[in-house]
Write a structure and sequence with these properties.
With about 650 residues, this protein is α/β, with parallel strands linked by helices. It is built from 23 helices and 20 strands. The strands form six sheets. Strands 2-1-12-13-14 form a five-stranded parallel beta sheet, sandwiched between helices. Helix 3 crosses helix 13. The longest helix has 15 residues. The structure holds ligand MGD (2 copies) and molybdenum atom. One ligand MGD binds next to helix 5 and helix 12.
Length: about 650
């Protein structure tokens, strides 16, 4: 590593981009702050007319998003964490909150120490620390969840214990269309029932491993309208090859049984990263996204974005960028040779990574990351805090300020937006990620890139102080002369009012300990957050007397969709060459790739490396005993 100055670094990036803007990609994160994600989004879409931007959240909750869109027509949970305080039953569908959401989980366990009764059901492919607290552990075969959800719905219909009135008033049945779309097509109740027919308790037992008695228990609970039931899930469902289907089915089960929209009754996909909702989903830092739930492939949405950004019509490109996996594939493929047929050779040659460690956390790392090594004229820029597997292949490393060293905002899985101020100064030469993005934009402006100007001939990140004088925020010594976060957030806020994801002005978040959107202004000038979305009297967008209103309904009639989806086995199942299932899981001691937590001696001592749990019979047969080293091998690597 050869140290250079920040000026040289920023100039190098700007020149790489200027040479071929369409071959430049930005890879960010659900650990980006909201203003960081918004700055990157604006540089790409309002400045470079490019949609080559993705967050690592694509690897995480993409199918939570498609499940919400398919069911309600709009992303993110209707429920809130308050549900955990009042639910009678909490059902985990293959997630491990005792280790992965320990603060939330303690909220459940604390209720027991207060003498309250709360039933915890842990369904999953492996026992975890969550299992230790559960009354029921239901062991699931991978992807068996599809059969379980169908099996419970079948029992509800058979027993007549479904919520007929709620469904008649507020829901519609939906099935797959050809070709598959998120909207699917309307089906009637009869067709829905027909789809459930195969899911007898015996069949569910066969494909999912869940005992008929346990399936019946779930149907007893969901069939009891007096109980309040909260479903929680995370990667067990969301990293599924049929993630959209299982997400839609679990929403459908809650709707069919009427366990929806009352405190304690909610289907909730938990978010993993602190701001995967706030920055990735809400700011829309995806190859298809615009802020506030808008899309680049929708002409009206593009016009709305161009108007808010004050850029000329046509500035926002309608061409979808590459999704994460394709983006890295393009980056790790040699540049097209002169005369090569179109479509051969990688289309991305400069990649900027912020707040994520893809060198360790991408799937299929060989072809998608390591193949970059030795490729001529591929340039990897990494904004990081510590040395990582990604910085190993980086051509340029930018030292970044961490969250306490900068102003920031996050949005979490209960739609709560939170703000904080910098608490300490960053060490050495470390600087804010958003500043880095803004500084590159300014350098591009100096080098003459026309996209850095808006319709009025002003720089897209132009910032003025109270007296109307421009603040040179591209110069780090002046970056904190104004609150750049506040400026970016208040601009971004304009987008959030188009799809009922309303955010309050920045100053309200300074006063509050977070606010859950939609946040709307009251007649007396105060701001009111929303707990249960789509439900009266909580959600301000539900008309008085309606009870519920799914105002972004896929069927455009105010109804939520109850989807029909079949069970299919996983695309790869154990065979002679690869005789085991591999089910992965995280541990409480570490955060993802461990670049941060492995530096903390007590955590490192507690969990110094990855470990494998093996069925004792298999272990005996293979002569493997406790504490031994094993080599795991899959079709993709070892
Ligand atoms: N300490 C700590 N906390 C974290 C993180 C961390 O790295 N460390 N990461 C955060 C992030 S970004 C995320 S996304 C979350 C992840 O949070 P979780 O999803 O709760 O945790 P994982 O360990 O990834 O989940 C693996 C679980 O998936 C289940 N599973 C496996 N296959 C299937 C299947 O086919 N169907 C079903 N239904 N379940 C299945 C298994 O039961 C297993 O327990 O944790 C967040 N919290
Ligand atoms: N094999 C496997 N792969 C997976 C998963 C899995 O279960 N198994 N889960 C997937 C999921 S759900 C997720 S969310 C991803 C997570 O994958 P990553 O996001 O790649 O993992 P992290 O280790 O959290 O990486 C964040 C990096 O940001 C750095 N950092 C921290 N603060 C800052 C900052 O303020 N600025 C900058 N520039 N850098 C900062 C940290 O040092 C760290 O290296 O992994 C995905 N990949
Ligand atoms: Mo995640």
């Amino acid at each position: 590593l050869v140290p250079i100055t920040w000026d040289e670094a920023i100039d190098t990036i700007a020149r790489r981009i200027l040479a071929a803007p369409e071959r430049f990609a930005f890879y960010g994160s659900g650990q980006w702050t909201i203003p960081e994600g918004y700055a990157a989004q604006k540089l790409m879409k309002a400045g470079l007319s490019s949609n080559q931007i993705e967050p690592n959240a694509r690897l995480c909750m993409a199918s939570a998003v498609t499940g919400y869109l398919a069911t309600y027509g709009v992303d993110e949970p209707a429920g809130v964490y308050d549900d955990l305080d009042v639910a009678d039953v909490i059902l985990c569908w293959g997630n491990n909150p005792a280790e992965m959401h320990p603060i939330l989980f303690s909220r459940i366990i604390d209720r027991r120490t207060r003498g309250e009764k709360v039933t915890l059901i842990d369904m999953g492919t492996r026992r975890t620390r969550t299992t230790e607290h559960a009354q029921h552990y239901l062991e699931l075969k991978p992807q068996g969840d599809l059969a379980v959800a169908n099996g419970v719905m079948r029992l509800l219909l058979e027993r007549g214990t479904w919520a007929k009135d709620f469904v008649a008033r507020h829901c519609a049945f939906r099935g797959a269309a050809e070709p598959a779309t998120l909207q699917g097509q309307a089906i009637d109740e009869q067709a829905f029932r027909k789809g459930l027919e195969p899911f007898t308790p015996e069949y569910v037992h066969e494909v999912a491993g869940i005992l008929p008695a346990d399936l019946s228990l779930l149907a007893d609970l969901f069939g009891n309208p007096a109980l309040k039931i909260t479903s929680l899930w995370c990667m067990g469902m969301n990293q599924h090859t049929r993630g959209t289907a299982i997400n839609s089915l679990v929403h459908g089960l809650h709707l069919l049984s009427g366990h929806f929209g009352r405190p304690g009754d909610a289907p909730t996909s938990l978010t993993g990263q602190p701001s995967a909702c706030g920055t990735a989903r809400e700011v829309g830092t995806f190859a298809h996204g615009l802020p506030g739930g808008l899309r680049v492939d929708n002409e009206e949405h593009r016009h709305e974005a161009e108007a808010l950004w004050n850029v000329p019509a046509g500035r926002v490109s309608p061409k979808l960028g590459f999704h994460t996996v394709e983006m890295w594939k393009q980056f790790c493929t040699p540049k097209p040779q002169a005369g090569a047929p179109p479509g051969t050779g990688g289309a991305i040659d400069t990649m900027w990574v912020q707040v994520t460690n893809p060198g360790q956390t991408l799937p299929n790392l060989g072809p998608l990351f390591r193949a970059k090594e030795g490729l001529e004229d591929k340039f990897l820029i990494v904004s990081e805090v510590y040395p990582t597997a990604t910085t190993e292949l980086a051509d340029l490393i930018l030292p970044s300020a961490m969250w306490v060293e900068k102003n920031g905002m996050y949005g979490n899985s209960e739609r709560r937006t939170q703000q904080w101020f910098r608490m300490v100064s960053p060490p050495g030469d470390a600087r804010d990620d958003a500043w880095q993005t803004i500084a590159v934009s300014h350098r591009l402006l100096e080098l003459g890139h026309p996209g850095m100007l808006d319709k009025s001939g002003r720089w897209i990140f132009e910032t003025k102080d109270g007296s109307g004088a421009e603040v040179p925020i591209w110069d780090f010594t002046h970056y904190y002369d104004v609150n750049v976060d506040e400026r970016l957030f208040n601009e971004y806020r304009g987008f959030t009012r188009m799809k009922h994801k309303d955010l309050a002005p920045y100053s309200e978040y300074v006063k509050a300990r977070g606010l859950r959107w939609p946040v709307v202004e009251q007649a007396d000038g105060t701001w009111r957050e929303t707990r249960w979305r789509f439900a009266e009297p909580h959600d301000p967008y539900v008309p008085k007397g309606a009870g519920f209103a799914f105002y972004h309904s896929v069927s455009k009639d105010g109804r939520a969709q109850i989807w029909s989806h079949p069970y299919t086995p996983p695309p790869e199942v154990p065979d002679e060459s690869y005789p085991f299932w591999l089910c992965t899981g995280r541990v409480i001691e570490h955060w993802h790739s461990g670049t941060m937590t492995m530096r903390i001696p007590p955590l490192r001592r507690a969990m110094p490396g990855a470990y494998v749990e093996l069925n004792p019979d298999d272990a005996r047969r293979l002569g493997i005993s406790q504490g031994e080293r094993v080599l795991l091998e899959s079709r993709r690597g070892k």
